[in-house]
Each structure stands twice: as structure tokens, then as C-alpha cells.
């Protein structure tokens, strides 16, 4: 199988390191992405929008004729869904880790303060206890060392979908800091219309916090391989 791994906010391809290695050892083709503006702390993030990040994902999808399982962590669940919307014939499944696709017309992500062109990591105090429950001091230090600001223009861009065939692409939602039961309740309450419209949505529990690629890469790689094989 071919996997495209999209990091969440503040992270780049190196955040997928152990997961990438484990999937490759299992015989899969894996491409972890570094999105525009996330090349380093000093990268130029001026003028970047969500379309720049989507173009980067689609370039990876289009690079091979083989279909791809597109994986999005956290806010990048929306990028995975946008890739399915733009390439429904090439994306075989999307996997969303700790995130769900944004609603049509809403900004890509709200709730984080911008500093000019940048949205810097806000510090651990801004997260719920469930998000960080499995992050000891060492894991927090490893994550912080990989973090760089995300482009403010990306977060501010309204999300627009085009092709209803996106709802036919199978979806696996890996539920780390929340449970599959929580996710079902949110779906029934109408809080996630894009996910609710899907014809094949699988919810899978993972006992971790918000960054399982760092805290339990073996478990996450196993779930990704299992999702891709279905």
C-alpha cells in the first residue's frame, strides 16, 4: 500500500519518523510530508493559504499511478478530506487521527492566536488534560524540538469542497484523546456534517493522547496498516 502522511499544526515530516520506518519495514510505500512554510522556524510563511498546503498534498497523490491512503493528523484531517474531494479516483481511503474535517465555509482552523504571518505553538497549558496525558517530559521535549510556527493564512482560509464523490471514499477515524463512543455522539448530534455524510466511516479507539505518532508509534502504525488493508 501507499501511504501519504500529513502532519498537524507546527509539525513536519520528521514527526512521523518511527511510524514511517515501521510502515516501510512492513513493505509499504510511505511519503511523510513537510507542508509549505513548515520547512523550519525561519521559513517564509507570508502569503501562504490552505490552497498551497492542498497543492502539496495533491502533488504527492499525483506522483504515482497507484492509489493512496491519505492520513491526516489533527487539523490535517481536513487536508486529507480535501484531497479525497479533489482526487476521488486516486484516494483509496482517508485516515484521520485525532481530528475531523472542517465544515464547508468555515476557516480551516479557529482558536489559535496569530502573530503576524505565524501561528506559534501556544504551549502545553493550552491543551486539555486528555490531549497530553501520555506525554512525559521527554516526549514533550521531543515534540517541542520538532515544532515551528504554522502559517496564519492557512488557518484563516475558508474550506470549500467541490465533489460529492468525496463521501464515497472510506474513512477511518482513529480516536486517541477522545473515544469512538464520543465521536458517535458528536455525529448523532450533527456536529460533524462532513463525516456524517460519509457512506463508509470506521471509528477506531487508540489509548493515547493527541500525538500517538510520538507516544505509541507501533500501535499507530498497526492501525494504519489495518485500515489501509480494508
Helix-strand layout with pairing:
Layout: E1 2-6, H1 17-25, E2 29-32, H2 50-62, E3 68-73, H3 77-86, E4 91-97, E5 118-119, H4 137-146, E6 150-151, H5 152-156, E7 171-175, H6 180-188, H7 193-196, E8 201-205, H8 212-215, H9 217-229
Parallel strand pairs: 1-2, 1-3, 3-4, 4-7, 7-8
Antiparallel strand pairs: 5-6
Helix pairs in contact: 1-9, 2-3
Q: What strand order characterises the main sheet?
A: 2-1-3-4-7-8
Low-confidence stretches: none
Radius of gyration: 16 Å
Mean pLDDT: 96
- Broad CATH class: Alpha Beta
Which fold name is given in CATH as the topology? Rossmann fold
CATH superfamily: Alpha/Beta hydrolase fold, catalytic domain
By DSSP, the count of extended strands is 8
Count of structural domains: 1
Oligomeric form of this entry? single chain
* CATH architectural group: 3-Layer(aba) Sandwich
Helices, by number, come to 9
Q: Distance between the terminal alpha carbons, to the nearest Å?
A: 11 Å
Written description of the protein model:
InterPro entries: AB_hydrolase_1 (IPR000073), AB_hydrolase_fold (IPR029058), Sec-Metab_Biosynth_Hydrolase (IPR052897). It comes from Nesterenkonia xinjiangensis. This is Pimeloyl-ACP methyl ester carboxylesterase. It holds the Pfam family Abhydrolase_6. The chain has about 230 residues and is α/β, with parallel strands linked by helices. The chain has a single domain (about 1-230), classed as Rossmann fold, CATH 3.40.50. It has helices spanning about 15-25, 50-60, 75-85, 135-145, 150-155, 180-190, 195, 210-215, 215-230, and strands spanning about 1-5, 30, 70-75, 90-95, 120, 150, 170-175, 200-205. Strands 2-1-3-4-7-8 form a six-stranded parallel beta sheet, sandwiched between helices. About 40% of the residues are buried.
